[in-house]
Amino acid sequence: MTALLPRRGLAQILALIVILAVDRVVSPQFFDLRLQDGRLFGSLIDVLNRGTPVALLSLGMVLVIATRGIDLSVGAVMAICGAIAASLADSHSLPVVLAAALGAGLVCGLWNGFLVAVLGMQPIVATLILMVAGRGIAQLITEGRIVTFSSPDLVWLGNGAILGVPVPIEIALGMLILTGAVVRGSALGLLIEATGGNARASELAGVGTRAMILAVYVWCGVCAALAGVIAAADIMGADANNAGLWLELDAILAVVIGGTSLFGGRFSLVLAVLGALIIQTMNTGILLSGYPPEFNLLVKAVVVLAVLLLQSPKLSGFAGIMARLRRTKP
Amino acid sequence: MTFKALFAASATAALLLALPANAAELTVGFSQIGSESGWRAAETSVSKQEATKRKVNLKIADAQQKQENQIKAIRSFIAQNVDAIFLAPVVSTGWDSVLKEAKEAKIPVVLLDRDIDPSGKDLYLTAVTSDSVHEGAVAGEWLAKTVGDKACNVVELQGTVGASVAANRKKGFDTAIAKHANLKVVRSQTGDFTRAKGKEVMESFIKAEGGGKNICAVYAHNDDMMVGAIQAMKEAGLKPGKDILTVSIDAVPDIFKAMVAGEANATVELTPNMAGPAFDAVAAFKEKGTVPPKWIQTESRLLTAADDPQKEYDSKKGLGY
């Protein structure tokens, strides 16, 4: 457990608690839970449910960033895979639909990984290509329309529940455990961190850095595909123009809030997901608060700044800030 | 490009010489923005239908959301000496010089769906657009009439912050319900014109307003957000269309599907038929010299569950929405 949740997670947990407390103040019924049609219903469930796509994206993104890379294409990959799933949903069974969508995500990841690992392109530029082209591909699949479907199997992925907990939340949790088991249960995580820390030294030490980089982009593509399928299942349709739009930035933000450095070399899966939850807790709080929408982005920016200040090594925590203030007093 | 334009022009000229056209037949060039939304695709297909109905030879140039492509298309239309040019401007400024060229060539220009910067008013024949303030007002008046004297808490799903359409649809609705003290907008938040955000915002409205018990109606600035909101209401165990009234704008096919299912009450149509009135204005101008007004406002039809939503759905589903 210590490997999954290191001591540096304190700032994030503190931030989440503070934001939850603020949400409770702006919306007194925030922690209320009840069962509605066999499904838990309440603002807390909304936070987890709406946070699922970004949480899934951040699971892939955190590994990519650990290798000193970045993947700007995840939002577009979401749109592609959602479009594929929606187009096939009414004519094929769920396993076929999932295989096609996740397969497409895998191919997108392979493409990114090929550009970065084999051709040696800068990750930000290499993935920018798919970010731009991907949305166009998604629009070609949907022909610019919102493709709707009624397949109960796929709808269940977005709106169903097992033991009262919505399916998307369970999928995200499952993916966190799976990813954690694979990268932390073996030396893989260490090798990924080594690749990000110093690719050349790792290469000389016998780490297959190319394979590592290829693998993390593929995983990132698969995670994005899953997020895209869930987003489409949620609204029972694929909206190629808007699905996953700007979510790559939220995923990067989640990873950064989770304390993972953009320079690579170390990462924490749990904290990246916690980062995604922090973002969503704040978004839901803003929606519940009833402030005019013109303030949404401003509030978000201030909170993100505060969270990042909280974990800044120079200002380590409130205690540090207070100590500094006291010291500067004449 | 110049060569291409010259080639196209000479090809058209050759064609015109070979086949003397019917005197009444018009050739119109239409510079369309590109495929930015389902509505835009529907506008293109309706324009083609209207052209066929009137035996107009319509040439459509897709600008892929770039002004430079639109300017090239207009120059090519001028070179082809078309009878009129339709322009759906992607931005509002920067049209002066190319529209002057059209004016010098004595080719009337009609703006569709969007207006351009006021400095160009004498450079086009007329603009066919809808009035988005009026659309909001039609929605507000329907709600006021339907609710009667009952107290009614309305929640509003706004379009993208900063979009003029969103601001106008809000203004029109607010003005219409201001006369009715029993109607009050209790919550208003942006859903970015998308289904996903419409659903997410509606979920939070329901929680913030006592599980939806305090909400009497939802007003959404477009149908897509309403489709998302309807899902949110159903998942919360509410009955949209019955427990909570719905009114939105655009009239896309899926809102009629919801009306057929009894889950939506009303929508205000943003007609995709901007070309029809434009063809008529151009024909009257060419034949009788009638100068149309500078602004032709399209009708904002109110469509409710009583207006045969199944028929509306069938007529709209093939248009590319």
From TrEMBL, chain A:
GO MF annotation, one: transmembrane transporter activity
GO CC annotation, single: plasma membrane
Localisation: Cell membrane
Topology of the protein relative to the lipid bilayer: Multi-pass membrane protein
Keywords (A to Z) from UniProt: Cell membrane, Membrane, Transmembrane, Transmembrane helix
Transmembrane segments: 48-65, 72-89, 109-134, 213-233, 245-263, 270-291, 297-321
CDD domains given in the database record: TM_PBP1_transp_AraH_like
The keyword S-adenosyl-L-methionine belongs to this UniProt entry's keyword annotation: no
InterPro entries to which the protein is assigned, alphabetical: ABC_transp_permease (IPR001851)
PANTHER family: ABC TRANSPORTER PERMEASE PROTEIN YPHD-RELATED-RELATED, GALACTOFURANOSE TRANSPORTER PERMEASE PROTEIN YTFT
Protein name as it appears in the record: ABC transporter permease
Lineage: Bacteria, Pseudomonadati, Pseudomonadota, Alphaproteobacteria, Hyphomicrobiales
From TrEMBL, chain B:
InterPro entries, per database record: Peripla_BP_I (IPR028082), SBP_2_dom (IPR025997), YtfQ_transport (IPR054837)
Domain (Periplasmic binding protein) ranges: 30-275
Alphabetized UniProt keyword annotations: Signal
Record-linked Gene3D superfamilies: 3.40.50.2300
A molecular function GO annotation: carbohydrate binding
Subcellular location(s) per record: Cell envelope
Bias type Basic and acidic residues, positions: 308-321
Pfam families: Peripla_BP_4
Region Disordered, residue ranges: 302-321
Signal peptide as annotated in the record: 1-23
NCBIfam families, A to Z: YtfQ_transport
Protein name as catalogued: ABC transporter substrate-binding protein
Lineage: Bacteria, Pseudomonadati, Pseudomonadota, Alphaproteobacteria, Hyphomicrobiales
